[in-house]
Design a protein that fits this description.
mainly alpha
Amino acid sequence: GVSIYEERMEGREALYSHVLNCDDSTVHHYALKVLGNALDAISRRHHKCKEGALDMWGSIVPSLVRGMESAGRNPHVACGAMRCLKLLYTMQATQYPSIGNNMRIDMNSVRTVTGQAWEFGKVNHLALERESRSIIKLIMKEGLTARASA
């Protein structure tokens, strides 16, 4: 049989794959919801992630930024992507402050797409507006500028 550890690894790899794969927006949306809920639960319980795990999940950042860019076409995906990016960045900053912006987040891109998503969300999607606002506050609080991107 398959061990519990092997099942968990398969589940994590499947989630990772669905978060990266934007071809099926419904599956992608739900994968982002699952990842966001998992990250939220980890951060609320003050569990510390292994640095390698943050590196693995940090590799999805370009996919999250692409999801954020889809606010006008798919606000649910954009909202989920923003939530995941915010949680990943916050977890890294609080758990491993010495490594800085190790996830190679291009804050100029994030700032641009967040502003566009906020404008769309103000009129069309309350949750998207809220997530956009929380990232804008994070950017302002942290003083994240172009120098923070790699």
